Amino acid sequence: MMTLEITQTQAYDEPWYRDNRHTEDPGPSDWYQNYPSLSPLLRLYIHLNHHRVLVVGCGNSAFSEYMVGDGYEDFVNIDISSVVIEAMQKKYSNRPHLTCVYLLFV
């Protein structure tokens, strides 16, 4: 009879995990792709100044910052980590087109 070993996985979806991660490593991080590598594709579908952009699970990525630098406007970044949202709100306080919102699950 085969037995399965129980393995422990990271709690990526837990606010406490994200808060700890961003406290320990506050630098910008893009998990899958960065903006420069995706910008040609994004330009095909998201035209400058014509769309509102919602970035779900923004983390501390510089993705939105790069897009604003390229001329895109009207961003809302949301994340479950209060640590990262507070840092992003402070960092982008002088950028009115970038809004950062803490998403609270109850």
From TrEMBL:
Keywords: Methyltransferase, Transferase. Signal peptide: none annotated. Gene3D superfamilies: Vaccinia Virus protein VP39. GO terms for molecular function: methyltransferase activity. This is Methyltransferase 13. It comes from Olea europaea subsp. europaea. It comes from the Eukaryota. InterPro entries: Lys/N-term_MeTrsfase_sf, SAM-dependent_MTases_sf.
